[in-house]
Amino acid sequence: MKKTHRIELGLFAKFPETGRVKTRLAPLLGEQGAARFARWLLLTALKKASAFTAVGGVVRVNLWTEGGTDAQWKALLEPLQLSAPIHLHRQVQGHLGERMQHATQIQLGASNVSILLGPDAIEFSQTDFQKLLNAVDEHGLAFTPAHDGGYVAFACVRPVACIFSGDIQWGTNQVAEQTQQLLKRAGLQARWLSPQADIDEPADLQQALARGSVPEDWMNDYSDDA
Asked: Which residues cross the membrane (predicted)?
């Protein structure tokens, strides 16, 4: 990485309230278990993201929230005891693309590179973070796709309106393909890295447990505030 000096890394998250998060996991975990797992995913992602480093760069971590009060978010994050602060922002109203576009514009106003990372990107590591930075440094726009047809992270050095379009069927397995089509139509290119797992369905979690990407005793983590 040669050009980057300031990186804004944002995660999107709903407050892990029973019945509102990871509802597709309820048949396996129950509604309370699904909410607890969403909480585990988020806290694990924040702990990991806060430790990311960039050669010659400074990384600032933002959490773009939906739901929950300020007091609830503070209580949720306190057990992490991170050395670097997590900067909280509220998501705007609108479809996911509109919310991502707003966050990206805010982050680019304070940085050379904006990255958005999904909290259920359980395989995303420091190595993957550096690969994404190298890719965006070379291409200006880079994605880490998901096996399910979406993507777990993307980075850019300037806003690219078409990737936030309402024409994209957000939350479906068409997101990455439709994003590529819109970029091609706009005459733009991006770097797509190797796909990774994320967790939406019971089969995703079962596979992650089998691979060790999620520990069998995940429920014991962050248990002080359970």
From this structure: none
Mean pLDDT of 169-189: 96
Q: Return the ∠ at Cα 8 (arms to 171 and 154), rounded to 5°.
A: 35
151-156: strand order across its sheet: 86-90, 58-66, 6-14, 113-117, 151-156, 141-145, 191-192
Cβ proximity of 45 and 117 under 8 Å: yes
What average pLDDT score do residues 41-49 get? 95
β partners of residue 86:
61
The predicted pLDDT at position 10 comes to 98
Q: Would you state the pLDDT for residue 226? A: 40
Is the pLDDT at 80 greater than 60? The verdict is yes
Distance between CA 215 and CA 208 in Å, rounded?
A: 8
C-alpha distances in Å from residue 169, one per residue of 56, 95, 141, 151, 164: 37, 10, 20, 13, 10
Q: What is the DSSP letter of 57?
A: B
Domains of the chain: 6-225 (3.90.550.10)
Number of Cβ within a 10 Å radius of residue 184 = 12
Q: Which helix H or strand E contains 72, and what residues bound it? A: helix 70-77
pTM of the model: 0.94
Show Cβ contacts of residue 24 under 8 Å, excluding neighbours closer than 6 positions. 200, 201, 202
Contacting residues for 154 by C-beta, under 8 A, at least 6 apart: 115, 116, 141, 142, 143, 144, 163
Taking 70 as the threshold, does the pLDDT of residue 42 lie above it?
yes
Mean pLDDT of 195-200: 94
